[in-house]
Amino acid sequence: MHTLKSRMSGHLAAFPRLTLDPGERRRAAVAILVSPHEGVPAYVLTRRAAKLRRGAGNYALPGGGADHGEDAIDTALRETAEELGVSLTRDAALGMLDDFVTLTGHLVTPVVLFSETPVILKPDPIEVGEAWFNPLSELDHPEAPRPEPHPDGGNPILRMYVRGRWINPPTAAWLYQFREVALHGRWTRVSDVGQPPWTAR
After folding, report:
1. If you placed Cys at 194, which of 12, 68, 72, 150 could pair as Cys (CB 3.0 to 4.6 Å)?
2. Alpha helices of the chain — where are they, by DSSP H?
3. What's the CATH class of domain 2-200?
4. What is the tens place of the pLDDT at every residue in 49-88?
5. DSSP state, 104?
6. Residue 124 burial (10 A CB sphere; 0-12, 13-18, 19+)
7. Which residues contact 50 (CB under 8 A, 6 or more apart)?
8. Which of 9, 198, 18 is nearest to 109 (CA)?
């Protein structure tokens, strides 16, 4: 895990990430939390609780809107603690990916968090219906990302493979960029990836 941490840190430090002025948009952050699980490096993905007003049942990374005075790292750490019961310090943050505008109008910054020791997930049932570890190797599925035509004729929707399913952007876009940048050192942008219209609801 230490070698993986060093490689990811180096890739993220060298990455010329895209930063955007939020303007009237609300700032938010998501956490890509990497830790060992059953002997292999893994990341954490959730499925949102079924009774949420927005995004119910969607696959998601832990995250949410920034509180007053928080930066993206603060937000990612707080949301990880609130949603997953995993408390980490700022030195767990290896770096950030591109700012990304969702169809809901949020300006989201993905933050890569790393724990060299296994973490125990204690999901908050109000927000999280399910949470699990996925091996990092799964991100390199030979067909991922899989392009799907946009129903409105926009840019293709790139989907990523997770646990036998193909999940949608924006979560799929963040995982794709994480794979390319943090794991492989390939400077890949995802700002123009199509997002399904229903993610605006």
Report:
1. 150
2. 2-14, 72-84, 171-178
3. alpha beta
4. 766 666 667 899 999 999 999 999 999 999 999 999 999 9
5. T
6. middle
7. 56, 57, 129
8. 18
**DSSP structure class, residue 9:** H
Task: Tell me the CB-side half-sphere exposure of residue 160, using CA atoms within 13 A.
Answer: 25
Could you tell me how far CA 131 lies from the centroid of its own chain?
13
Helix (H, G, I), strand (E, B) or coil at 137: helix
**Distance from C-alpha of 97 to C-alpha of 73, rounded to nearest angstrom:** 12
Residue with tokens 């790393």: 114
Lookup: tokens for 71:
């930066």
Assess contact for 110 and 96: CB atoms under 8 A: yes
Strands (E), the chain: 26-37, 40-48, 59-60, 63-65, 93-96, 100-101, 106-114, 128-135, 146-148, 157-162, 165-167
**Domain segments of the chain: what residues?**
2-200
175, 32 contact by CB (below 8 A): yes
> Which amino acid, residue 200?
A
Place of tokens 């968090």: 113
DSSP percent split of the chain into helix, strand, coil, nearest 5: 25, 30, 45
Cβ(72)–Cβ(82) under 8 Å?
A: no
Residue 50 pLDDT: 63
